[in-house]
Amino acid sequence: METAASWLARWFGPKRALQVAAHVDPGSATIVLEGGEAVQPPLTIAARIVPGHRAELVVRKEAVHE
Amino acid sequence: MSKVSNLRELVELTGAQLESGLRSLPRDKGAPKLTTAVCTLAAEEINKSLAQVDVAGMLAHGWARARALRDAATASLASPGKPALATLGEHDLRYTCTPVLQMLSGEAALPEIRFTVELVAHFKAAEMSVVDGRLASVAPGSASVVARVKCGNTTLAEKTTPNARLSSTIRLDPALEIG
Known about the structure:
The complex is a heterodimer.
Chain A: H1 4-21, E1 24-25, E2 30-32, E3 38-39, E4 43-49, E5 54-59
Chain B: H1 15-24, H2 36-51, H3 55-63, H4 68-78, E1 84-88, E2 91-97, E3 99-105, E4 108-109, E5 113-114, E6 116-123, E7 126-131, E8 134-139, E9 142-151, E10 154-165, E11 170-177
Antiparallel strand pairs in B: 1-7, 2-6, 3-4, 3-5, 6-9, 7-8, 8-11, 9-10
């Protein structure tokens, strides 16, 4: 299957393809080409947790020692 | 409720919440407009990432900061291999992490969307065991937990779990450094 990048490169050449790729509409995942034609390449969605987190401790009452 | 093991069990996001939240963000923040279908898929991917977060493991990093552990750590160093116990009274643990949504249209990367997950767990008490100067296990009992998913300053989802049960004893392997 042809990828969006190779598709854009075929239409616009490698340098111009990078500029066109910046005009991808995230809402519809559609690339609108000059002349109004639109292509809808496959949309890949992934989520990850950024490494590193914050864990804080707030003590309200010290323990009662028996 | 059943025993809590991962963050998704404490809060998750629906496609509608994500769509509504992104719409409410200020326009000057460059928030993307996503269709309902994309929001549904994106929310599920965020939820999957939350399911990878081990709740007990992340809370343990907060317990390891307890001052009550310092005396126990000193005592445990005097008796190598033997546990020294410490009790922590009523306390809150606050945890924050940052899920990031990444989308590719074909091979073109779309702008990333960053979220924040905030969690506050309130415990009545916790018994902690220190071995060789490190936190080896925690017996926390149940907690009252509030967890929320935010994008910028906008809260997309919030859930309160009044009686979240963790493992009766959380064993930390490797044991955590104290302080």
